[in-house]
């Protein structure tokens, strides 16, 4: 199997980048390979290929212009074969009833009652894969996922900005009140901070999921590109099913999170606070205003406004 350079492995998501010269690797050198000899089943750099050609005149190595003749990289093969649930097991079966790839543990634990479980090696004899179409679909999903990620990250910055602006309003209001309001002020700031934390946590969760799905789809796309035009039906079948499952998962997430949400934290001072200080629950009211922007077409945009209200109270307050 082909070996990867250490830089390739360290990048994590870039699972398909380069191959190492087999001869140089034996000498503990990381040299990029430029040729692959099918007879030797080895890779060679520009320097080592000269010696190889002198020793094996009848061998016909393939240069980078013919990388379709190069083997599937071991890291790509391992990535596709690995079961997502039982990471130590390889995918060897396919359940037609659930349209799921299975390892031995999956078949035993989740598909014991299924009657249509087939070995992948048998399944690929009667079913073809459409890797090129899958690559296009993954590319589209990656673009949407990246856009959604950027939107959620912008929401985090926006809500922080609105928080900073409204904090100034709170401080201006506080200067009109005497020192006895210290406890109420702290309660108000704490409530607003909690609101900020909850809102940011919600967006951060979406951002993290965007990043995870984006990385998984990117890895899958690169693995598929390495498989193109290579006679590895089993891997192609696995890649096809993994891709479709990941696309379905991503589309579900995109559909659920497609609305571009901007949440505004707002502090509304109570104009009667000085006169009715003893009866007031806090410095004012904190709420978050959501602006939902749905854009189906560049010339067709509509906006929906929504607002959630949070009452600020202290423990000594009683309901009237």
TrEMBL record:
CDD domains membership: Bbox2
Keywords from the UniProt entry: Metal-binding, Zinc, Zinc-finger
Top-rank taxon, per record: Eukaryota
B box-type domain sequence ranges: 16-59, 78-119
Any one GO MF annotation of this record: zinc ion binding
Presence of the UniProt keyword Methyltransferase in the record: no
Protein name as it appears in the record: B box-type domain-containing protein
Source organism per UniProt: Dreissena polymorpha (Zebra mussel)
